[in-house]
Design goal:
The complex is a heterodimer of chains A (623) and B (239). Chain A is of the alpha/beta class and 623 residues long. Chain A has 26 helices and 15 strands. Chain A folds into 5 domains: 71 residues, no CATH class; 90 residues, 3-Layer(aba) Sandwich (Glutaredoxin), CATH 3.40.30; 215 residues, Rossmann fold, CATH 3.40.50.11540; 76 residues, Ubiquitin-like (UB roll) (Roll), CATH 3.10.20.600; 86 residues, NADH-ubiquinone oxidoreductase 51kDa subunit, iron-sulphur binding domain (de novo design (two linked rop proteins), Up-down Bundle), CATH 1.20.1440. Chains A and B meet through helix 5, helix 19, helix 20 and helix 21 of A and helix 2 and strand 8 of B.
């Protein structure tokens, strides 16, 4: 036990550490299911979770070190090695890359004197990248501990680092607060809402708690009937009928049922839930409370993605306020026996936790792996109890439907997609931000509104959605045509389509949970082959290979991540065939294009410490 | 308990199933073999390798986790399904470092046997990832050569559920997901050579090695040198 020997020389430190770990675990009742909170606190306190801590936590909560290690190694914001007192995560999605992330990265590396993945020797700073932190309308952006820095430039990022070095706290970095509640004393963030278009449901004048009042006058079954009649579908992307999900949970016999809000929007390019959490937290909680009444639940949970930690205090404030107003807690609104409480569960950097059963796993203190279906979460979810998991936007809609009535909501949109949809628009347009529009809007109309000219491609639904070209701009955003959780990325004619595709595949490789073979391994192969095409080495057989491999991954993957991860490849092949045909050529010499002699020699060169007389053309010159 | 009997069709053959059985269990009972690597009798179903993928009423699913239902139409040995399985088995070869000619498990290896059953003699379709993986020989009786691990988790479940120990567990995510041990190395755990997790039938490949007994059965006389994987279920082997 190497750890103990080191600690032995400084026994007090070891004991102090153990005491602090014991306190942390005790805060969460030494409950194994609160592992996420225990680990978040431990990471926060010690900047890392080392083997000793894992061992100590395991014995405190009654588990094994390998179980704790399984959780620690799953989430991006937990680390074995110490991170800096100030941990910087630079957002690395395609939008940020196109907005000049490289220059920001260079400036950060120069100012801090470290590379990505490293911590400064004094332990002050660490530098990492994060897949998408939900700020694509104000890219490039970064997280500095629990503070968001948006609209970065090489100049201002250098100034920020210098201020931090001189002792300014991250929360004091922003001189100018954002709009709306971003400037609230409980939030104080520089993030901007950028609400470009308010619709009739969410971003209009909303009367507080009218939906809840009307719901409480109804029988629970009547609430579900009304939500079903409205045609409301889950707004996270999958589009399952909300009322039906609730029905399953209500009909499953159990003592306990749970209402979970999925605030883990991680699809690159989406940020609509962030704006709802900022501007409509009351509406969200109202919707959750209605759901609790409908299915018979006393416990709710908001799963807030780790990247939105800056919103935690704000949401806690709103929860407390509602509690004091009798809108949460016991005998809500004076209804005897209607008790409901909500707690916030913070995530720790894992896109897959946006999948409802993975979200539940995470809340149970496990790695964020999806669960086997059946059983479905609505029947057997959190700790085996019926659990409904709905998106932030879905719950907000619920409150409005209860107030305005199902027909009002049902009338909006298209025959199969009802109500409005929040779209997060970013990329090459003049007015990135939030657009609340009725279902059925065409991409062309949206481009017009957003002031997007010279657009070559629009990614609808994030990386797992579709890359649409000019011949598809007439297509409509709705379940009948192009379904989306809300992410809309616009790309001008100057952008490299294959760079976008490769970036998306990189994202899936990074975010696959690794549980099933096709998603874990297959995505790596997809990315490799798209890279080969980009490098100009591809032959026609590579296109067939990509199609076949995509088919295998889609058909055999266990959850939605793998079932959609080949979409960037398939939709770009379909909608941008000329880009591929320009780069793919028959091999003239008939040699295997998958074999690169230079790469193959690299390891031998390194080991032998000299170069190849035959394969290094300039060998003789250097002699 | 009187279990309700259900009837499903697998490749056109009527198969009876008891309520609560998975498609794979029903198939096993009917002497129809559905290929599998992560699923093994006696351990809880995991559904992670996806080799047992079948089509049910036109949709693909893992047969080791999907409950059998009355009237299901299951496709098992169609060319489409076989091709999906071939890709999965190839992925497992390409993901790790599988050098059959020098592997002690050759002939007993389920991955190798599965490749032969699916007519893969040379997995060359995908690029070899050639990962750098560790060898843990710290324990006096057991060694782990993780080059050959296919992340099936059979050792994890056997240790947890049969041995009541938890020697093994998954760590990491994505392509870096691997099987770790509960301690700095295997010697630091409470593993024993008598554990079910260490039994030869638990690890389908040659990752878990029992020291001192290698090559007791010479190559050529081993299980899959003499039979095709799945034949025991299909009832084709002589009792």
């Amino acid at each position: 036990m190497a750890d103990k020997a080191v600690d032995g020389s400084k026994p007090i430190k070891g004991l102090v550490k153990d005491r602090i770990l014991a306190e942390i675990c005790a805060t969460f009742d030494n409950d194994k299911h609160r592992m996420m909170d225990i680990l978040l606190e431990t990471q926060h306190h010690f900047r890392c979770i080392d083997a000793h801590s894992m061992e100590a936590i395991a014995s405190l909560v009654g588990g094994s070190r390998i179980e704790v290690e399984g959780v620690v190694s799953f989430y991006a914001f937990f680390s074995h090695k110490p991170k800096g007192k100030i941990a910087i995560y630079l957002c690395d999605d395609i939008i940020d890359r196109q907005a000049g992330e490289k220059n920001i990265a260079k400036a950060l590396k120069e100012e801090l004197g470290i590379a990505f993945g490293e911590t400064t020797t004094d332990g002050m700073f660490s530098l990492d990248s994060a897949p998408c932190i939900g700020m694509s309308d104000q890219a490039p952006a970064a997280m500095v501990n629990d503070v968001i820095l948006a609209n970065l430039t090489a100049e201002n990022v250098r100034a920020y680092v210098r201020s931090l070095k001189s002792g300014v706290l991250p929360k004091d970095l922003c001189e100018c607060l954002g709009d709306g509640n971003n400037a609230n004393d409980n939030l104080r963030s520089m993030v901007r809402n950028n609400i470009q278009k308010s619709g009739k449901v969410l971003f209009c004048d909303v009367e507080d708690n009218k939906g809840l009042e009307k719901a409480l006058a109804l029988e629970p079954a009547a609430i579900i009937a009304q939500i079903t009649a409205s045609g409301l579908c889950g707004c996270g992307g999958a589009g399952f009928l909300t009322g039906q999900k609730w029905r399953f949970a209500a009909d499953t016999a159990d003592e306990e049922r749970y209402v979970f809000c999925n605030a883990d929007e991680g699809e690159p390019g989406t940020f609509k839930d962030r704006v709802l959490l900022t501007e409509r937290p009351d509406l969200l909680i109202e919707g959750m409370t209605i759901a609790a009444r409908a299915i018979g639940s006393e416990n709710g949970l908001i799963y807030l993605r780790g990247e939105y930690v800056y919103l935690k205090q704000w949401l806690e404030h709103v929860l407390k306020q509602r509690q004091s107003q009798g809108l949460l807690g016991t005998d809500i609104c004076g209804v005897k026996g209607f008790n409901f409480n909500i707690r916030i569960q913070l995530g720790a950097g894992a896109y897959i936790c946006g999948e409802e059963s993975a979200l539940i796993s995470s809340c149970e203190g496990l790695p964020g792996e999806p669960k086997t279906r059946p059983p479905f979460p609505a029947q057997q979810g959190y700790l085996g109890h019926p659990t409904i998991v709905n998106n932030v936007e879905t719950f907000c809609h619920v409150a409005r439907i209860m107030d305005q009535g199902a027909p009002w909501f049902h009338r909006m949109g298209t025959p199969k997609s009802h109500g409005t949809k929040l779209l997060s628009v970013c990329g090459d347009c003049e007015k990135p931000g939030i657009y609340e529009l009725p279902f059925g809007i065409s991409i062309a109309e949206l481009m017009d509104m957003a002031g997007a000219q010279d657009v070559a491609a629009v990614q609808v639904g994030g990386p797992s959605g579709q890359l649409i070209g000019r011949n598809g701009f007439h297509r409509k955003i709705c379940y009948e045509d192009l379904a989306t959780g809300g992410s809309i990325m616009m790309f001008s004619t100057k952008r490299n389509i294959l760079e976008i595709v490769e970036c998306f595949l990189e994202f899936f490789v990074e975010e696959s949970c690794g549980f099933c073979t096709p998603c874990r391994v297959g995505n790596v192969f997809l990315k490799e082959r798209v890279g080969k095409i980009r490098a100009g080495h591809a032959v026609p057989a590579d296109i067939e290979y990509l199609k076949e491999l995509s088919n295998t991954i889609i058909k055999t993957s266990r959850c939605g991540l793998g079932q959609t991860s080949p979409n960037p490849v398939l939709s770009s092949l379909k909608n941008f065939p000329l880009i591929f045909s320009a780069l793919v050529n028959e091999s003239e010499d008939g040699l295997d294009t998958n074999f690169n002699i230079q790469n193959a020699l690299e390891e031998s060169r390194r080991l032998a410490k000299h170069r190849s007389y035959i394969y290094d053309p300039d060998f003789a010159e250097e002699e | 308990m009187t279990a309700k009997t259900l009837t499903l069709k697998i490749d056109g053959i009527d198969v009876e199933a008891k309520s609560g059985q998975t498609i794979m269990q029903a198939a096993d009972d009917a002497s129809i073999y559905i290929p599998r690597l992560c699923d093994v009798e006696g351990l809880r179903h995991q559904g992670s390798c996806r080799v047992c993928t079948v089509k049910v009423n036109g949709r693909t699913t893992s047969s080791c986790t999907q409950p059998a239902e009355d009237g299901m139409i299951v496709e098992n040995e169609t060319e489409e399904i076989l091709n999906l399985r071939r890709d999965i088995v190839r992925m497992l070869f390409h993901e790790g470092n599988h050098l059959c000619p020098i592997c002690e498990a050759s002939g007993n290896c389920e991955l190798q046997a599965m490749a032969y059953r699916l007519s893969i003699t040379q997995p060359t379709k995908f690029p070899y990832l050639q990962p750098v993986r560790s060898l843990d020989a710290s324990h006096p009786d057991i060694a782990l050569d993780t080059n050959r691990c296919i992340r099936c988790g059979r050792c994890i479940r056997a240790s947890q559920d049969m041995d009541g120990k938890g020697v093994f567990g998954y760590v990491g995510r994505g392509i870096t997901r691997s099987v770790g041990v509960n301690g700095d190395n295997l010697a630091a755990t409470n593993v024993a050579i008598t554990d079910h997790a260490i039994a030869p039938e638990t690890c389908p490949v040659g990752c878990i090695i029992r020291k001192g007994v290698g090559f007791v059965t010479p190559i050529g006389s081993r299980e899959f040198d003499c039979s095709i994987i799945g034949e025991n279920i299909e009832g084709k082997t002589d009792e």
